[in-house]
Write a structure and sequence with these properties.
The structure is a homodimer of 223-residue chains.
Chain A lengths: L34 H21 L6 H8 L3 H7 L3 H20 L9 H17 L2 H13 L5 H19 L11 H22 L5 H15 L3
Helix pairs in contact in A: 1-2, 1-4, 1-6, 4-6, 4-7, 5-7, 5-9, 7-8, 8-9
The first copy, chain A, binds a DNA duplex (30 and 30 nucleotides) through α1 and α3.
Chain lengths: 223, 223
Amino acid sequence: MSPTSTDATTDASTDLGTAATAPAAAPSPDEVGSAAQRERRKRILDATIALASEGGFDAVQMRSVAERADVALGTLYRYFPSKIHLLVSALGREFDKAEQGLRGRPVPGETAAERVITILKMLSRGLQADPHLTEALTRAFMFADSSATAEIHRVGMTMTSMLSRALHPDLVDVGELGEEDVAITKVIGDVWLSALVGWVTGRSTAADTAHQIEVAVSLLLRD
Amino acid sequence: MSPTSTDATTDASTDLGTAATAPAAAPSPDEVGSAAQRERRKRILDATIALASEGGFDAVQMRSVAERADVALGTLYRYFPSKIHLLVSALGREFDKAEQGLRGRPVPGETAAERVITILKMLSRGLQADPHLTEALTRAFMFADSSATAEIHRVGMTMTSMLSRALHPDLVDVGELGEEDVAITKVIGDVWLSALVGWVTGRSTAADTAHQIEVAVSLLLRD
DNA sequence: GTCATGATAGGAACACGTTCCACCTCGTCC
DNA sequence: GGACGAGGTGGAACGTGTTCCTATCATGAC
């Protein structure tokens, strides 16, 4: 309830980050509950994405989501305790989708820097193709507090996993990354996030964002 | 009009700062209006800081601010068009204060990395001394959209100025920084912001934050 | 079949950001 | 002094996130 509680997950910093402690295979939220419940959950997230895509953060109104998902408002709140949770969960699902699209296929590029930039550009292109959706999800991510730690963590893990595979294409497990590589991954994630926020809030253009990331990567991976 | 300074910070992307259109020496908001108006403005910002410091973002309620500043709600909205503007303006004032406290005094430290870390640690300590206030101001900063560009810009400039002086203590004007140094400054600012968000939202501890910044700085300034 | 139990529907109610309106106050100009 | 107008006051009202309550529905135990 009170967002001040120091909860778990704190020992390993999360940020966009460290996949350090895998939370012992938490059951994916898509796998719990009855079939009807999974179906409702999916409808809710679909409605969320649709509304976000149409009008951004402000357009994702809980009453609208409930109506479009054909679910009562109280039910919506039973599934997602707040608008922020709802949007961060949606973000998690989208991120997962993106990661699965990339998985398997090797990342093109000779050097680590090239591959990382490639990955980030692909991600950015995907996001910029749907500005409203991106705005909604990013805002939610930035506004989430510790009560959404679990969802945030999933997103961070996915990001780490994508970047890691770009850094070292032959690595199987993220845990095998060296300390410095983990740090680099984290910094790049931070820059990416900041750039994204700048873009979402209209403070910088898409070109700015891309340039900012390229510069950061070239500073960090100059070998 | 103004002497063309061709400084690097304006054309490049923004990160914490540079809005696309530099507002050409806008008169500081503390210098406009009648004495009574400046006084009202100050009372409003004081009330904002006080409430934020007591209970964070949620405690800064427009009705409360108006009441504590002894001002009508409509007047409050005449001075600051939204809660976000209000908080970002307050952030700007606080940041200015911090920067003025640092100005003049040389930053201790042998290497650039040491000095940058020192500055950031001082900043972080200041922020962590008042978590509620920090939470309120950071949330606002992250949530601000382009309508608050001017205020955001002030904050970004201040940050850049502080970091620049740490990088090159003898520099007089920020515009003299080399391209790479500007880029480094920006990346560090990004990491700092991300770390701050992580801390504010309860996703990471103060120690995490400090460590995260140190690692980033040492990666970026390893000469 | 009946019943108990938990989930859902439907909707009222509340809190807070924001807008709007009617009226008042005070400095300025004639 | 009186009229004017910008800016201030007090408060009602609206929208949206959130909470809460009651009736209805579904499902498994017996």
